[in-house]
Amino acid sequence: MKIFPVHFKSGGQEIRGLGYGPEDGVPAPFRAIVIHGYSSSKHLMDPVSTALAKAGYPVVSIDLPGHKLGASGGSLISFDMAVQAALDAHQQLTSPAPPVYIGHSMGAAAALVAGSLDPDAVGVASLGLGYPVTVMRPNPEVIQYYLERWAWVDGASPVEVGLAMDKALPQALEKLATRPFLLVSGSRDKELPPSSAAQLFAMAHGPKTHNTVDADHSGIPLLAAPFVVEWLNAVQSSRASS
Q: Which of 70, 119, 221, 241 is most buried, by CB atoms within 10 Å?
């Protein structure tokens, strides 16, 4: 596996990230565009990116602007910026392989919307996503937690981002219909609990797959990695036989 820096422009801002390439260099059927969640970084997605590269899929994992550990700098102006950064990661870093969009939390919603907007997208994998995204935010303790997380982000508040996600997700799920969708949720997720994951999955069209892992919200990407690889292998096999 080869890991190397990548950078490109999106919305007038510099986006940086990492590319993960299969060691054999054989052209792959798909390329994964990986997007982290709010107040996080590409580091949290490394288990998924590494597992995909080891399975033979090239990966571009981006750091969104305005984030605490990010290399991109800048500011997260809105949820739409995360979606555009995902689309630009594929469009500006050219590859003959069609994209699969994969994300966690806010990045999961961005992956879903980006996949619905990109006619070349093969499918979408969303980790730690539910509907509505704002389901737990009337709880005062949860509001306080999200306000603390806002301190780690230069840009839009988590409440603003969550409301934008809730507005975008139903239409994105409709547009994604007929393309493969994977949802991986956490049984101990307090931010987007199992009931919200079940609601999102019910809204999605087939072909769709739902896996649950024994994890809290931030722990989902680590345990989700083998399920993402298994799902993408199945997508590849289905396309090859059709």
A: 221
